[in-house]
Amino acid sequence: MKILYGVPGEGMGHATRSKVVIDFLLSQKHDVRVVSSSRAFQFLDKSFPDRVTEIKGFHFAYKNAEVSKTGTFLLNLKSAGKNLIYNIGKELNLHHSFKADLVISDFESFSYFFAKMHKLPLISIDNMQVMNRCNLDITISKEEKSNYTLAKNIVKAKVPGCDHYFITSFFDAEIKKENTSIVPPIIRQAIQDAKVSKKNHILMYQTSSSLKTVKETLQQLPNETFYVYGMNQDYTDGNVAFKPFSEKGFIDDLASAKAVIANGGFSFISEAVYLKKPVYSFPIHNQFEQWMNAAYIQKLGYGRHFDSLNADGLKAFLFDLTLFEKNLSGYKQNGNEVLFGELEKYLVG
Questions:
Q1: Which domain CATH number covers 213?
Q2: What residues have CB less than 8 Å from 321, skipping those under 6 apart?
Q3: Between the CA of residue 308 and those of 18, 207, 229, what are the distances in Å?
Q4: Is there a single domain that holds both residue 167 and residue 272?
Q5: What one-character-per-residue DSSP string does 151-179 give?
């Protein structure tokens, strides 16, 4: 089967998990072509030479470590016309050179419109649709209700009318719409193969806060050792080691950490839960999906949900590590077998 796979360029979580699914589809002898943008395009193009087409995608604007709604609108409005013309050219070339039988979208718009334009079967594989197609079993704070309404409406409008929705999730949710399945998160093979242990360091993955703020906060706990990834630094100051990107180094440090610190990004949190690492989560403001993930981490007892990174919060979180470890010990997931089985069953009819 010829499959067109759409991957958004905003954030690398979509790209790393989509690579897992694309590898599986290729192993099953399907012919896959990929469309993506920005860093995700660069990553996927290296992984799948001659199979990836670059498009122009949507991007978030950030201000003071939170999503700027106005900035995001203006950023994308400015380039909308030029990007549309560019993407139309890519669509025409793809349509003539690759006669797709089916389209899969990981919350990506180009592939969605391609499927609708050419009347092709369309599958959604992402974690975002849980907001639209399931009932959330968490108490949404008054401050987050407007963000929830906005996020839900965006998700509802992004890829409507798919033939089936596979929702990846580390938590259970009641499905309220048809043609919907909940499956465990997509886990990279390197994470599945990682040797899990418990050493004395805490791993932090962070891209949105300032270097100075992170260091000052972590150094208020001088008896703890912190490894910080995501800030493109390579030096150690006291008990805080900033590390440059290294997939092997990152996975080794994650698999051996006693706990992790993160915003609310789904992919990293899912990997931490899979490896049974307690999570200190402080979601980026105005990004409801991250708030939701952090809320479920706390609800399930896998860690704590905080508004910010602060020393008092870290002390409270570390005090309860044993409880979080006990709760995480009950989490079970057999790699990606559930998703792969459901997906192949759908593809072969």
A1: 3.40.50.2000
A2: 258, 259, 278
A3: 30, 14, 18
A4: no
A5: HHHHHHHHSTT-SEEEEE-SS--EE-SSS
Q: How many CB atoms lie within 10 A of CB 74?
A: 11
Residue 26 CB burial class (10 angstroms; 0-12, 13-18, ≥19): middle
Note down the domain range covering 238. Answer: 191-328
Structure tokens at 103: 């389209």
39/138 same-domain check: yes
Give CA–CA dist 198/260, Å, rounded: 12
Q: How far apart are CA 151 and CA 205, in angstroms?
A: 24
Whether the CB-CB separation of 104 and 125 falls below 8 Å is answered with: yes
Per-position pLDDT tens, the chain of length 349:
999 999 998 778 899 999 999 999 999 999 999 999 988 999 999 999 999 999 875 543 434 444 344 443 343 344 444 555 456 657 767 767 889 999 999 999 889 989 998 999 999 999 999 999 999 999 999 989 999 999 999 999 989 999 999 999 999 999 999 999 999 999 999 999 999 999 999 999 987 666 689 999 999 999 999 999 999 899 999 999 999 989 999 999 999 999 999 999 999 999 999 999 999 999 999 899 999 999 999 999 999 999 999 999 999 999 999 999 999 999 999 999 999 999 999 998 7
* C-alpha span between 89 and 82 (Å, rounded): 11
Burial 121-152 (b: 16+ CB within 10 A, else e): bbbbbbbbbbbbbbebebeeeeebeebbeebe
Q: Which helix (H) or strand (E) holds 303?
A: strand 303-305
Inter-CA distances, 345 with 165, 220, 334, Å: 14, 52, 18
Could you give the number of structural domains in the chain?
A: 2
